[in-house]
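Subgroup meeting minutes
Present: P.N., E.W., G.H.
Scribe: E.W.

1. P.N. recapped why we're keeping a running log of single-chain structure predictions: easier to compare across weeks, and new members can see raw inputs and outputs side by side.
2. G.H. added today's entry (119 aa).
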Amino acid sequence: QVQLVESGGGLVQPGGSLRLSCAVSGRISSVNVMGWYRQAPGKQRESVVTIDSGGSTYYSDSVKGRFTISRDNAKKTVYLQMNSLKAEDTAVYYCNAVWWDAGNRREAWGQGTQVTVSS
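Output recorded in log:
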């Protein structure tokens, strides 16, 4: 069974920084796409950023220039460096992993980590 374990959320003041981590464990040799999504109260879950195994990234316009995603393929871990945080970044952040297994697309989600930006 594949599991995603997130860490690094918390409370930070506007303009501050946080770094999220997400490690993939279980019977999986490699992950094709990893990403971060977020869901604010009363809103739908939205994509923040994704990164594929080649390092190509896709950022939402709302976080471009402030957030940076990176991954360590050997460790099957993805990181999200969040700078210049704003109140509107407050949400539960979820890690996502997509991979192929015997020709079948597989997907897994982390449990979510709360990020609160407030003074």
